[in-house]
Fold:
Amino acid sequence: MKRFMQILFLLLLASGYAAAYEYHMPVNIQSTMTPAVLLPGDEAVLAIELANGAASYGTGRDAGAGSSAQSTLLSTPLNRTSLKSTPVLQVLTEDSRDLGMIGPNDKITVYYKIRAADNISSGTYLLDFQVVGGYDTTTINRDILIKVDDTPVGLARAETATSTFNLNVANPRENTLNAVTIVPSSKGIVFSPDEYYIGTMDPDEVFTISFGIKSEDAAKSLTKPANLSFSAKFKNGDNWHTSRAYVTAYTPPLDNSKQSSYLLPAGAVALIVLIAGGYLYRRKKLSGKPNSKPNSSFNSNSGSNSSNSSGNSKSQNGKAS
Structure:
């Protein structure tokens, strides 16, 4: 009888503690990933935040007067979290165990490292996340969204000046890229600078950069068309990438100074020929006109003869009278 009473007392005590404890599993689960969008082959850190919203839902508080939990906010134990891999997304971190107690309005963050396969396609993927907690080992399942985009830094030709080559650099991705550097190359050509460092590029941001171009042989100038190659180095999170080469044709502009040196002698010769032709044409024109000077002499002589004749007549008449 005594033993029976002891067992009954223990059962009542246990039931009293059980009635006093109220818990609420963390239903608010949020995740962030760095980098926010993966490229094929990238590794990322996934941070999953578990929040206990017990106080918001009116649970997880004390069980009332007379209970062993009077005037206390009771917490919920977190036993285990797990994140499952897929054929193209590998989870590199082991499951988390014995995370401790989480009270109402408290938060716990668990971290997982994941890796995207080299042959993964662009798109949205889901990873299965599980939380096991509470004294009755309740399990909560959530899908964690993972984005993958294989789009690299974009390169395009811009308007080019006489001695420089201009290039447009764009970030078409949804996430920020870091340490963006453009590397030019071409046989027989020297670029200035030899690398162009841009740095951080926000989503949809575009930069226009310029490279000086000259011949590798300082004694010669660029006169023939050439293919110029540009590639972009950048970081997505902690992952380095190099874009495919962007190749474009470059035709050196005409050298106006050389054209002027060639045109100066030709212009001088043309001017001399023009002056000589004008002189000859004028001389020929003048030689074709009739000579007016002999006629004037003839007229003056005729006039003098007429005056002499009239004078002679007058003198003869005078003598006759």
Summary: The chain has two domains: 20-148, 154-250. Confidence is low (pLDDT under 50) at residues 12-23, 58-73, 292-321. The radius of gyration is 51 Å.
